[in-house]
Amino acid sequence: MAGRVEARLKQLKLELPNAAAPLANYVPYVRAGDLLFVSGQVCQWNGERKFIGKLGAGIALEDGQQAARLCGLNLLAQARAAAGDLDRIRRCVRLNGFVNSAPDFVQQPQVINGCSDLFVEVLGDAGRHSRVAVGVASLPGGVAVEIDAVFEVG
Fold it and tell me: Which domain range does residue 133 map to?
């Protein structure tokens, strides 16, 4: 049924941002066969960066989860731009989550749950995925979270 994922977004009262243009010399996504690789998306809304800082040094866990959720909305916006229709997503295969972390912060998996939980809410079982969640010393523009994704599309 066409529009199933868009209907689910509306039911959840979620809106997708505009698909962001690349910040450097790369493309926002690449399709290889049935796989769609979406470049890292930061926590921004229509070009405005949100959640600037480090987890464990000014950014609380709950804010980090919201930052990851925002990355997820940006990933879905890119997937829609690439596939033309979110219903073409068969499943999310993998997420790679990067958390701008203070040296002693160890809750990166809980931060990236913000995106993982969003994908299950929106895509159901097709949103379940393999994943990496790591802490890094810095991210572009000082944002708290960046996530990339691989989707299987039809």
Answer: 4-153
